[in-house]
Design brief:
Length: about 425
């Protein structure tokens, strides 16, 4: 390109020279000496033009090289950023997936006879996506702030499993995971439920939070129905007098002499309305190897969770649940624990104050009985009502009043509860 410019410039100068010469001839013919001087002057001007063009060409070439070098650096930096983003900043150890961190926490104050403050839970979630079809999930919890020998708290691994997608509607998960039963067993972060403490029915009958080791198949049959099928380790009520909550083994060197099976079906055809039912069977909840000591057990649970908008900023909520265990063992029948059941209802109303803030009011009535198989009135009853305030959808402040009517009167503890909870 620069050569063409130079040729054009020289041609123009020659034409101008010729024109000048013609004009001069018309007036006066220059001598040979004058012509020679003119030629030398024109050659000097041509050399200067060549130098200028040469400098410009060199500059253009250097600039092009610099641009190419910068482009290479930008591409390399982009590759590094893509790698960091794909590993969640964790290094990834050569993986092409994404690592995520989350968790939740809740601090409680319980008045009445209890009169104490407790960092009830601090939980950390860690997950990693190996590919579009394979993921890992884990959850580690510290309860009551401090753990160790002689301390009030515990450190627990509540989840650690790998999930595999068969297709967009069906998947399997293998490892330590939550049992698909009830409302709060799988979703129990503090901003997701009313009241400072979890309800007594899902705590004592189901019993949340309840996890086991096993394999689970989940999926959607259509837009209205979903399912969960799980084969897993089970309860061990040996030494606990067949009391369900005390039978949780938490997968810590847990005996697995028989396998439990859980099946759940869920219906969600109408937006804001969910209905689910769970059935579980365990051939022996004492994990005994002696045939004459086996205690087979079944659990049936049904629930509904409704959230329906009734105005531009108002939502009506309603939760209800019923659960019952039947234990087939003579020893359990003698103490009335061959049947253990409970139920509760919880209406609520939530008002959105703006895009971030919301306030909700609730009332809950609960009844549960771990000795419902006898003729003695051993049911525990609890009424709670209060308010939740969300300054952010993932942060909640709670206040409620709890009225207890326990079969064991020494447990009665009418009180005010205060709490703060969050998830991230």
């Amino acid at each position: 390109m620069t050569k063409n410019i130079l040729k054009a410039t020289v041609s123009t100068m020659v034409m101008c020279l010729a024109f000048t010469a013609s004009s001069a001839m018309a007036q006066e013919m220059p001598t040979k000496e004058d012509m020679w001087k003119m030629i030398l002057q024109q050659q000097e001007q041509i050399k200067k033009l060549e130098a200028i063009v040469g400098i410009t060409t060199e500059t253009v070439n250097k600039t092009a090289e610099k641009v190419a070098e910068n482009e290479q650096k930008i591409e390399a930096a982009g590759e590094v950023l893509d790698q960091v983003a794909s590993t969640g900043g964790s290094g990834g150890h050569g993986s092409t997936g994404k690592t995520s961190v989350g968790g939740y926490a809740e601090l409680h104050y319980n008045g009445g006879n209890t009169d104490q403050v407790d960092l009830h839970r601090f939980v950390v979630f860690l997950s990693h996506e190996f590919s579009d079809k394979i993921r890992f999930f884990s959850e580690m919890e510290i309860e009551h702030s401090i753990a160790g020998q002689g301390k009030v708290g515990e450190v627990e691994m509540e989840q650690a499993f790998v999930e595999f997608d068969f297709n967009e509607n069906h998947m399997a998960s293998v490892g330590l995971q939550l049992i698909p039963v009830g409302i709060i067993n799988e979703t129990h972060e503090p901003p997701t439920f009313y009241g400072v403490e979890r309800n007594g029915v899902e705590k004592n009958i189901i019993p949340a939070t309840w996890w086991e080791a096993g394999i689970k198949f989940s999926g959607n049959l259509n837009e209205s129905f979903s399912y969960d099928l799980m084969m897993h380790s089970g309860l061990d009520t040996t030494g606990a007098g067949y009391k369900i909550r005390s039978g949780r083994q938490k997968v810590g060197k847990a005996p697995w002499k028989n396998t439990a099976f859980t099946a759940r079906a869920s219906w969600h055809a109408i937006p804001g309305i969910k209905v689910g039912a769970t059935f579980q069977y365990q051939s022996d909840i004492t994990q005994s190897s002696a045939a004459d000591e086996n205690a087979s057990a079944t659990l049936f649970e049904i629930h509904t969770d409704i959230k329906r908008s009734v105005s531009a900023n108002g939502t009506i909520g309603f939760r209800a649940l019923f659960a019952q265990w039947n234990v087939n063992a003579d020893a359990a029948e003698l103490i009335g624990r061959d049947t253990q059941r409970g139920w509760y209802v919880e209406p609520s109303y939530k008002i959105a104050l703006d895009d971030d803030n919301a306030v909700g009011f609730f009332a809950r009535y609960s009844v549960w009985d771990n000795e419902a198989g006898d003729s003695i009135d051993s049911a525990n009853k609890q009424t709670a009502f209060g308010i939740n305030y969300w300054p952010h959808e993932n942060v909640v402040l709670k206040l409620d009043y709890q009225i207890d009517n326990y079969a064991n009167e020494s447990k009665e503890d009418n009180r005010i509860n205060l709490g703060i909870g969050l998830q991230f």
